[in-house]
Design goal:
This protein has 187 residues and is of the alpha+beta class. It has six helices and eight strands, in the order H-H-E-H-E-H-E-E-E-E-E-H-E-H. The longest helix is centred in the first third of the chain and has 23 residues. The protein is elongated. InterPro entries: NTF2-like_dom_sf, SnoaL-like.
């Protein structure tokens, strides 16, 4: 079993935060290869039902990125923001002091997690192609995501965390609205 200490806990938190932050940035920069290679797992449960209707769908990474690329092509520009990322990871066991040295008690050590979940605030500002820049679609809400550690990526020395579930729960909207967006996506 791999060790799970404070350093690994902090590295996991930073890597998970980087993965979900890259998701937003790579959408807005249209970096599809970055989404494929650095963000998504081989299979993803996507749930945008509170924005677009329909049902949650499990897709392969390739299928999802083909759909996402189609969605992104409907926008002249977009800005997706994520903040207040709260990651649910077990705390490693506290270090104990013994004669000036610090040791970790392995009998109470938390198991190194292979999966993690998180919640965050999300927001999006989008301008549809062919629309004036003052005609901005805006929405905001809560992200619920799940990520999994990929052992093969970890062996390569890269961030091993990949998104396996991505659910956006809309809390507000402004502008021409989701009906316009949904109709553009179905056209």
């Amino acid at each position: 079993m791999a060790s799970y200490d404070i350093a690994q806990y902090l590295l996991d938190r930073a890597n998970i935060q980087d993965t979900v932050t890259k998701n937003s940035l790579y959408y807005d920069t249209r970096n599809i290869s970055g989404l494929a290679n650095e963000v998504y797992a081989a299979s993803i449960l996507i749930d945008y039902t509170s924005i677009l209707g329909g049902e949650p769908t499990t897709l392969s990474r390739t299928e999802w990125l083909e759909q996402a690329q189609g969605i992104l092509q409907t926008f002249e520009s977009s800005q997706h923001l994520i903040s207040g990322i709260i990651i649910d990871l077990p705390q490693p066991a506290p270090a104990s002091s013994s004669g000036g040295t610090t040791t970790t008690t392995t009998t109470t050590m938390a198991t190194r997690p292979e999966k993690a979940s998180l919640m965050a605030h999300v927001g999006g500002n989008m301008i549809l192609k062919g629309q004036p820049s003052s005609n901005v679609i805006q929405n905001g809400g809560i992200l619920e995501a799940e990520l999994q550690r990929d052992p093969e990526l970890e062996k390569q020395g890269v961030n091993p965390w990949r998104i396996t579930k991505y659910k956006v729960i809309k809390k507000w909207g402004n502008g021409p609205g989701d009906k316009v967006l949904a109709s553009e996506l179905q056209a």
